[in-house]
Amino acid sequence: MKEDAQPTQDALAFARQVAEAMYEKDIAAQKMGIKLTKVGPGYAVMTMPIHEDMLNGHSICHGGYIFSLADTAFAFACNTSNITTVSLGCNITFLAPARAGDLLTAVAEVQSQAGRTGICDVTITNQDGERVALYRGNSYRVNSKIVDDLPERR
Amino acid sequence: MKEDAQPTQDALAFARQVAEAMYEKDIAAQKMGIKLTKVGPGYAVMTMPIHEDMLNGHSICHGGYIFSLADTAFAFACNTSNITTVSLGCNITFLAPARAGDLLTAVAEVQSQAGRTGICDVTITNQDGERVALYRGNSYRVNSKIVDDLPERR
Amino acid sequence: MKEDAQPTQDALAFARQVAEAMYEKDIAAQKMGIKLTKVGPGYAVMTMPIHEDMLNGHSICHGGYIFSLADTAFAFACNTSNITTVSLGCNITFLAPARAGDLLTAVAEVQSQAGRTGICDVTITNQDGERVALYRGNSYRVNSKIVDDLPERR
Amino acid sequence: MKEDAQPTQDALAFARQVAEAMYEKDIAAQKMGIKLTKVGPGYAVMTMPIHEDMLNGHSICHGGYIFSLADTAFAFACNTSNITTVSLGCNITFLAPARAGDLLTAVAEVQSQAGRTGICDVTITNQDGERVALYRGNSYRVNSKIVDDLPERR
Q: Which residues on C lie below 8 Å from A119 (Cβ)?
């Protein structure tokens, strides 16, 4: 769902509950400094600061970290239904380099969901609003839940 | 160039010299535990062990680490010409999950180079030879060198 | 440029002049029934009706025709600068089938242009506004012009 | 399956039977001049001659036709199981232009099949063996068959 679709308070609370449970187990994202700043049904905003030890041999941020932020935001947006959803793969385009000291923000929005498969777009910008990367991911729903005690919301 | 094209000893030594200089500056790759095990003109093999702190909220290796390994192998294969080459973007497909304790190997081979742009494919397998991910990246040559004292080799 | 950026009348006329010259030579697009309905700087809208002879072995519109419409809209949006721009490749996602009798509309917008390379997104919808496909293409500027008598507009 | 895996005569005959039934209904492919020259389990080779009326505004073969050949070969390779398989989307990279008079050949090989989803790669070459395009498609199996009277072969 797009940010402007104005989900109900209940839908927002549900999405947040699932996302927080998922974040708690996502050691990789935590260790990379990725934070969840906003979440709703099919929607997530996450941030990551770039440090010196995230630079590659060209002295710019390693593409793997930029991808990791995008992929994490994708995962959080896709799993807010509480139906475990994984990535089949994706396409990422790098528009501008990220540098040490930058704070990147990823906005992920599910674009389409049909049966088990879906599409979720992520845009990454830096602290100046400049676009750093565009990511388009293919999601796939498997037969399990993120939070066992909660229902699925299709 | 494909692995079986049998580059000369001189070409191999040149590629290794560029790659080692690049690896030394690639703090991000080093910190992720990525190692360079083989390199030749347009060709690189790199490995990465998966640890507990690389797992995501589904308790499998975060896609960002798998991507990082692929993207690093891509970068090393593309830069063996000593012409600084960056990624415009790529496509990655996840075929099987990676788990804590796995040792992943990425084999990167430049498929095409025309003017400034090129294509480089990466296949990631685990210690059992099972394919974990397929990566296809678009490269772009910029106007600088990796090792200033060495020539470019087109 | 996005549709809402309101280009000047002069910029619109320039884009249209380049696009019309290009359309006149695009025998393939004409033969497929693709029409140019709107064009501006970095922006193009094109349509294509689906006929019985465009169906594949599953009795839905062959993906090749859907792609052709997207790729054509991409080309027209990218070339409005009058700098010959080709496709390096792209990613397309099919969201819903198209059927005989449908009228598809492709909206193409350049998202980014940096040096010779750029990104242009295309969304294809049917006559009911349902999204049929999402396309993201990588463009590359070569050293020639579409209309020799006109300048380049970067 | 890869070409060199040497399927049994029975498996080849089964794949051919399914492919021929599918080709008979694929009006779009037939009309584009695409021919099936070889087929086996998870494998298909198809050809397409390039004519003047397939050229675009740059006087080279419209990318839509090159894509159509790749997409068709993908479809035939993916459906040899007799389980109806559609495309979720794909990535295509254009390596060299095709021109009027060229004869293009597409070799499609399923790389991976896990549950409903799979990956199939297609390489397109011209009559001189030069690579024209690389295509990587995501397939999805739906609940129907190509030939009702034949079983499914997983």
A: 93, 95, 134
- Neighbouring subunits of A (3+ Cβ pairs under 8 A): B, C, D
Return the structure tokens found at D105: 């050949």
Question: Which chain B residues touch A65 with a CB distance below 8 Å?
Answer: 28, 64, 68
* Parts of chain C with a pLDDT under 70: 1-5
Locate the chain C residue with the closest alpha carbon to A114: C95
**CB contact D91 to A (< 8 Å):** yes
Average pLDDT, chain C: 94
In a domain, B57, yes or no: yes
DSSP single-letter state for residue D61? B
Residue A129 contacts C where some CB pair is shorter than 8 Å: no
pLDDT tens track for B45-77:
999 999 999 999 889 999 999 999 999 999 999
Confirm or reject contact between C140 and chain D (CB < 8 A): no
In a domain, D22, yes or no: yes
Fill in the DSSP letter of residue C103: E
For chain D, how far is it from start to end, CA to CA, in angstroms? 12
Question: Is residue A116 within 8 angstroms of chain C, CB to CB?
Answer: no
- Out of B116, B138, B140, closest to residue C89 by CB: B138
Q: Which of residues 15-54 of B touch A (CB under 8 A)?
A: 22-29, 31-32, 52-54
CATH number at residue B16: 3.10.129.10
Q: Which residue of B has its CA nearest to C87?
A: B117
B42 neighbors B17 (Cβ within 8 angstroms): no
Task: Read off the pTM.
Answer: 0.93
Residue C151 lies in a domain: no
pLDDT at D47: 98
Residues 6 or more apart in contact with residue B103 via CB below 8 angstroms = B47, B48, B49, B50, B126, B127
- How many other CB atoms are found less than 10 A from the CB of residue B52? 11
C56 in a structural domain: yes
DSSP C70: H
Nearest of C92, C99, C129, A112 to residue D93 by alpha carbon: C92
Which of left, alpha, beta for A139 (phi over 0: left; psi -120 to 50: alpha)? beta
Task: Summarize chain A as % helix, strand, coil (round to 5).
Answer: 30, 40, 30
Q: Which two tokens stand for residue A62?
A: 């390693």
Contacts of D131 in chain B (CB under 8 A): 111-112
Per-residue pLDDT at B1? 46
How many domains, chain B? 1
Q: How far apart are CA D116 and CA D138, in angstroms?
A: 10
pLDDT of res. A6: 83
Number of CB pairs < 8 Å for A and C?
32
* Candidates B95, B112, B119; nearest CB to D112: B95
B-chain CB neighbours of D96 within 8 Å are 114
**Phi, psi (5° rounding) for residue D31?**
-65, -25
Interval A15-46: pLDDT, tens: 999 999 999 999 999 999 999 999 999 999 99
Contact: B58, A84; criterion CB under 8 Å:
yes
**ipTM computed for the complex:** 0.92
Structure tokens at A126: 């830096």
Give the structural domain span for A85: 3-145
- In this structure, are residues B47 and B107 in contact, taking their beta carbons and an 8 Å threshold? no
